[in-house]
Design brief:
223 residues; four-stranded antiparallel β-sheet; single chain; 3 domains; three-stranded antiparallel β-sheet; 6 helices
């Protein structure tokens, strides 16, 4: 089943004031819980060692010190990992794909949906069991290919990206159609005239060649 926003409710939500007009958040994702595997493993080991030291009567002071430092370090690493997890987000909106990370200093990537070419996902057998994986996104933006790790249900997220890309494309065609009708002044404008208007929008950079050909083919089918 596709992921739901409620599946990822923990952490810092994406601020609404950073959304564009008529833009909505579809998914606001945090890294999969496997993100905590190593700090949790170290914490469990350090605590087990600490318990052994407490139960060992006459344990050397040096070993007690090592065990205590180990627990403190493990707790610190786990706490820092949680802060990083809570401030790392992979957001899909109706217009963009947005990645944000960092506790004190922040880094981010934004890819418009219309710039995305291909979305790949990778999962090992173990990751399939725990429903985690990685995404690789090829786009025509300045960033080129971007990799995103520890994504929960990556196949479903991939499908959601493609779904939003299609919805975004349909909305763009609707806006183009409204623009054409507004500029031509009549809904009865001939199809050749509408194609000529589309070509003008393409020359202005409003439509790409691919979008022009798709809309042109749609109009020609009405003849």
């Amino acid at each position: 089943m596709p992921p739901k926003p409620s599946d990822y409710a923990l952490g810092v939500p994406f601020p609404k004031e950073m959304l564009n007009h008529n833009e909505d958040v579809v998914l606001d994702l945090r890294p999969h819980w496997w993100y905590f595997a190593r700090p949790l493993g170290l914490l469990a080991t350090a605590m087990a060692l600490g318990i052994v030291m407490l139960a060992w009567d006459g344990a050397p002071n040096l070993l007690n010190l090592v065990a205590g430092v180990g627990v403190v370090v493990a707790l610190g690493w786990f706490g820092l990992s949680y802060l990083r997890w809570a401030t790392t987000s992979f957001v899909i909106t109706t217009d963009r794909l947005i990645s944000r990370s960092g506790v004190l200093s922040r880094t981010g990537v934004e890819i418009p949906l219309e710039k995305i070419n291909t979305v790949f996902f990778r999962q090992t057998l173990f990751e399939r069991i725990i429903k985690s994986g990685d995404l690789e996104i090829e786009s025509a933006s300045e960033q080129g290919t971007q990799d995103f790790s520890d994504i929960r249900r990556p196949l479903n997220v991939q499908n959601e990206i493609y779904r939003q890309m299609e919805n975004n494309e349909n909305r763009k065609f609707d806006r183009v159609g409204d623009s054409i009708r507004g500029q031509m002044g009549s809904p009865q404008t001939s199809i050749p005239d509408q194609i000529a208007q589309l070509d003008q929008l393409r020359s202005q950079g409003i439509l790409t060649d691919k979008e022009f050909e798709a809309k042109k083919a749609e109009l020609l089918r009405r003849l």
